[in-house]
Specification:
Elements (H helix, E strand, L loop, with lengths): L2 E4 L7 E4 L16 H22 L3 H13 L2 E4 L12 E8 L8 E6 L1 E4 L2 E4 L2 E7 L3
Parallel strand pairs: 4-8
Antiparallel strand pairs: 1-2, 3-6, 5-8, 6-7
Helix pairs in contact: 1-2
Amino acid sequence: MRNRRTEPADGDPGTTADTSASNTDVDVVAAPGDLERALADRQALIQLCLYALDRARSGGVVQRLEHGLADIGVTALRPDGERFDPACHEAGGAIPTDDPALDGVVAETEVIGFAEGERLLRAPIVTVYAKRAQ
């Protein structure tokens, strides 16, 4: 919005907002394809954020990106302690265990995954406990 110089009632020059272009009674008509373009742009920006998050060296930057993504419905997935599910997780390694209760449980998340609602954007890469061969 541009500002314009005006003379207030007391004679001192000042700056006031130029509201001549503001009209709240205007109907906005979307062109065909605007929604599709906006959704495509949103997905591209989400992918760019994931790319930046993977390369961030600062814990504060990672946290800020994760919070920003969460604000728009994209949640980080850290399935530590959950049962490994190949439909939702990617195995990156295994840790031997003698505890049968831990067999097949995610020990740690190597690379954070992300989901948008029920849609998996990126599966987390995890290390899984595996029963030690005897």
